[in-house]
Specification:
Order of helices and strands: HHEEEEEEEHEEHEHEEHEEH
Number of helices: 7
Helix content: 10-25%
Strand order of the largest sheet: 1-2-3-4-6-8-9-10-11-12
């Protein structure tokens, strides 16, 4: 694989700094402030320590395995190492002025080694190639160190199960947690309440996004939130949701109080039980075949009393009928 050489560093330097005739390569590299070594298929960072005044380094889309030889660049403010094969964050302890660090699409499992970067404002560490079933983990020392300065955090696509570690980052203004495995909407709502400066939030692609009105719940949980999943939150919309939340809470409280205060009715009609597509009562029916008192008679002929009366009447008419001629 290609290794980083001095000539490559000279070619990658900014055009505004020209190489003098009496300059050696080392002297010229010491005067560079910007280098662009993106998409060079590099696997190491040899000789980059010669760039003592380096402030911005574009090293993305390479094959870098380790962060090395960069500790001498103490003036570094922006470091872009996304889309490499880095497995561990190291050799960054001396970069006291670093404000933007991009480590997307690597193989990092633990966010560590940043406890001395007191000026770091943006940490982009999304879409790590994690082992199956594992999630991105934060070192407590790193969280404590980043609390006063970090304003932007991108941890999307890292199989996060909870947002507990993010509670410590009280200065966050932008938070991206898309495409994780977050199921607890209540936990995210509590997180928003604890971040007073948060203005931009992106949560799409999480399981809790399948819940109805989850966006409304998130908006009413944060007074500072202005953008949710790329959509602006207008003051009118926020006021409407605030009123909706107040009415909904009052109705829930009233329903709870009424259920708690009203005793059960002993004479209430028994509930109907669904059987298939019909409803059958739980109490016995009087029209069942076991109760023959309410069933119609099973015989087809008239009652005996009526038949006897009719026979007697017919017999009487026969007795008084005239017979033959009288002379």
């Amino acid at each position: 694989m290609p290794r980083l050489t001095k000539d490559m560093l000279v070619a990658a330097g900014q055009k505004s700094i020209r190489k003098h005739r009496d300059d050696t390569i080392d002297k010229y590299l010491a005067r560079l402030t910007h280098i662009n070594l993106a998409r060079r298929k590099l696997d190491t960072l040899d000789h980059i320590n010669l760039c003592h005044r380096l402030m911005v380094a574009y090293l993305y889309e390479n094959r870098i395995l380790r962060i090395s030889n960069i500790g001498a660049c103490t003036r570094m403010t922006h470091l872009y190492l996304q889309d490499n094969k880095i497995e561990r964050i190291e050799s960054l302890g001396r970069l006291k002025h670093l404000s933007v660090l991009s480590l997307s699409k690597n193989k990092i499992t633990v966010v560590e080694g940043l406890h001395t970067l007191r000026n770091l404002k943006e940490l982009i560490i999304d879409s790590q190639a994690l082992p199956p079933g594992e999630q991105l983990v934060f070192d407590p020392r790193t969280l404590d160190a980043l609390t006063p300065s970090l304003t932007r955090l991108d941890v999307s696509g890292n199989n996060l199960h909870s947002v507990w570690d993010i509670f410590a980052l009280q200065r966050l203004e932008t938070l991206l947690i898309t495409n994780n495995t977050l199921t607890d909407l209540g936990g995210v709502m509590e997180l928003l309440k604890s971040l007073p400066f948060l203005s931009t939030l992106s949560v799409k692609g999480n399981p809790f996004c399948l819940m109805s009105k989850f966006k409304e719940e998130l908006v009413v949980s944060s007074r500072s939130l202005q953008i949710l999943d790329g959509q602006d939150i207008t003051p009118t919309y926020r006021e409407f949701l605030s009123n909706w939340k107040t009415v909904l809470d009052s109705r829930r409280e009233a329903a709870f109080i009424s259920r708690k205060a009203t005793p059960p009715d002993p004479y209430a009609r028994p509930a109907l039980k669904r059987v298939g597509v019909t409803l059958s009562p739980k109490f016995p029916s009087r029209l069942r075949a076991t109760n023959t008192f309410f069933l119609p008679p099973m015989t087809g002929g008239p009652p005996p009393s009526v038949s006897g009366a009719r026979s007697a009447t017919l017999a009487g008419r026969t007795d008084h009928a005239p017979t033959g001629n009288t002379t």
